[in-house]
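Forwarding the complex inputs:
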Amino acid sequence: MTDNKKQKELEKLKKEKDEYLKGWQKERADFINYKKDEKERFKEVVRFSNERIIKSLIAVLDGFDLAIESFLQQGKDKKENEHYLKGIYLIKSQFEDILEKEGIEKIKVKLGDSFNPALHEVVTVIEDKKYSPDTITEILEKGYILNGKVIRPCRVIVAKTI
Amino acid sequence: MAKVLGIDLGTTFSAMATIEGGQPKIIENAEGERTTPSVAAFSKTGERLTGTLARRQAITNPQDTIYSVKRLIGRKFSDPIVQKDKNLLSYEIKEGANGGVEIKMGERWYKPQEISAMILQKLKTDAEAKLGEKITDAVITCPAYFDDSQRKATKDAGEVAGFNVKRVINEPTAAALAYGLDKKKDQEIVVYDFGGGTFDISILYVSPDTIEVKGTGGDTHLGGDDFDQKIMDWVIESFKRDENIDLHKDPLALQRIKEAAEKAKKELSSTMQVEINLPFITSGASGPKHLSYSLNRSKLEELVDDYIKKSIDLTKKTMKECGLKASDIEEIVLVGGQTRMPKIQEEVKKLFGKEPNKEINPDEVVAIGAAVQAGIIGGEMKDVLLLDVTPLSLGIETLGGVNTVLISKNTTVPVAKSQIFSTAAENQTSVEINVLQGERPMSVDNKSLGRFILDGIPPSPRGIPQIEVTFDIDVNGILNVTAKDKATGKEQSIHIEGSSGLSKDEIEKLKKEAELHKEEDEKKKGNIEIRNNAESLVYTTEKTLKDAGEKVPADLKAKIEDKAKELKEILKNDNFDIIKTKTEELSQSLQEVGTHLYQQQKQEEEKGKPEEKEPDKDDKDDKGEKDDKKAKDADFEEK
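Prediction (whole assembly, two chains):
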C-alpha cells in the first residue's frame, strides 16, 4: 500500500472512529437520561392511577350531594328523618376526609362569581335578571383539583348576555 | 441537535410527539392531557383561549368559539363542503379575499390557517415548557385527500405559529410509519381511521423509500361522537318509557348521561356488560328518581350497527375505485379511538381476512408517526442506530423436557444473560445443552438450534454441581451459548448463526401456534412441575432418613418410608391430582422428622455447656449449609 493510500485509509478510519464514538456517547447519554425520565414517569404513573381512581370516586361523592339535596327538598318536614340525614352527612364527610388526604381540593365557587374557563365549564346558559351577564347562576356539579390539576371543572349555568 | 415536533392536527383533537432516546414519545399539554381539543376562542373578557379552556366556555360563547376549522382550511367559500358545513357551525363565516373562507372571532375576521395557528401555537408553547428547550422545527399531518391549497394552508398555519414546517405528511402515511411499514416492499396497505368526528379510509402503496396514496374515501360527518349520542338517546328513551319523564330538558341530567354514555362505551370495549347508574337523576311527583340500566356489548353493537356497516361499505367502495380486492391488501392499520371497539376490529378482520395492526394507541398513532418522520429528518432515526430484536424466545431444555427461557422474545440485541443450572441425577458427570427457540413451554414443540455436551463434572449428589449457562447474542444476531462447570472451570460452547434468520411467516406461525396451544401447554408444564417436585421430594426424603439414621423413631420412619414408597408407585402413572396430594402429605410427614431432630438437638444442648464447644470446632471445617451443620452436630454427639 502506498503512503498516500495508507494516509487516506487512516483518515477514513479516524473519521469512522469519531462517528462511532459520538454515536456511542450519544446512546449512553440518551440511556442515562432515559433512566432519569423513567423514574419521573413512574411517579407520574402512580399519580395517574391515583387520579383515575379518585375521578371515579367523585361520581360517588356527587351521589351523596344529590341524595342530601333531594332529602332536604322532600323529607325535611319529618322530624324522625333528621337522624338518617345526619348519618348520611357523616358518611359523606368521612369520604371527603379520605379524598382530602389524597390531595384533592374542592374548587371554591359561589353564585354570582364570574365565569372562569380555567376552573368552570358551562353546561347551559339562561336568562336571569338577578345576575349580571357571564356570571354563575347555578352550580350543577362541584369541581375538584388534584395536585394542582383540574381533574373535573365545576359544572355551572351562566347568565346570558341580554 | 434541536428536537423536531411531530404534530397530528386533528378536526376535534390534536396530539404531539417527539423522539426521545431513539423512540417516539407523546408530549402532554400544559393541562397534563395527551391530546388537546382543536378549539380556539375569544372570550367575553377579551382573552384568547385555546384547547380545553376554549372548549369549557363554548356554550356561553358559541359565536366566538371556533372548532372544526380543519373542515374549512384551504377551501374556497364556494366549495360545496363549506356551504354544507356553514349551516352546522355556530360561528360566522364569509367569503374573503381570493374566494377563501374567513371566520369571525371577536371583532376581527380570521383566515382558517390563523385559527389553526393558534392551536399550533399552544402546542408549541406547551411542548417547549415540557421539554425545557426551544422548538422551531415541526412535521404536521393532514388527511390524504387534502389538495395542494389545503396542504399549503396547513403549512402556513405552522409558519404563523412560529414553526419551521419541515414537511406536511399524510395522516395515513404517518400511521404506517409509526408501525414501521415503510420498510416493507411493494405492497398495498389500508389505513382505517375512525375518529371522533370523521371517518377516513386510505389505501397506500408502499415501495422502497416511497409511500404513495392510491385512493381515499370516508365520511366527514361520521365518528365516535355519533356512537355516544346513540347511547344517550337509548338511555333517555328508556327512562321516558319507564318513568314518563323527559330528561332532554334537564341540563344537569343531560350532562351526567353524556359522561356516563362515553364511559359505558369505553368500558364495553373490555367488558361484556356495564351498569349505567345515575342516582337522583331527577325528582318526580312521588319523590326522587334514580336511573339504572345495564347495557351489554351486543345491545351497543345493535345500536351502532348502521355506522359500522357504513364504514365497511365505504372501505369496500374505496378499494373498488382503486381496482383492488380485499385479498390484495397486505396490512391494515387502525387509527382513531373508536377502533378500540371489538366489533369494529372484528368487521375489519372479517373483510380483509387478517389481523389489523392495533398495538399503538389509536388516538396517538398519527402523532407518533409524525415524530418518526421528524426523527428521520432530524437524523435521530438513522437506520444504523436501529437495533434488532430477537423475534422469538431462546432457552434450553431442562428436567422433564421443559423449555427454560433465558432470553425472552422482543429483547433488543446485543444482549447476554446467564443462569445457574444443576444436575438431575446422582453422580451425573455430563449435561446436554439443547438450545431452543420458540414460545412453547415444552421443548419438543420448539425449534432446536443445536446441542452440545459438557462432561467431566465431578460425581456429586444431584442438585450440587453449578453449571452456568450463558446466552450471548451480538449485534448481528449471532448467538453464542456457553456452559461452564463452576467447580472445575471446564466449559463448552456452541456458535449459532442466523438465530433470527427465520422468515416473517415462520415467526408468525410459531407465535400463532404458541397462542393456540397456550392452555394445554401450561397444563403440560404444570404437570411436569408436579412430577419434578414429587421426584425431588422422594429423593430428599430418602436422603434425610439415611442421614438421620437412628435418630428418627422407628414408627415415624416406617410411616414416612411407606408414604415415599406409595408416592414412587403413583409416579409410575400420570394421575397428577393424586401425585400432588400425596406429595403434600409426604412433605408434611417429613416436616415431623425435622421437628423431631430439632427437639432432640435442643435437649442435648440443655444437657451441659462444655460439650457444646466441640461441635462448634468441627463446624469451622464444615462448609455446608446451616441446616447441614445442625445435622452434623447431632452426628458428632452420637459418636
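The first strand of chain A starts at residue 104 and ends at 106.
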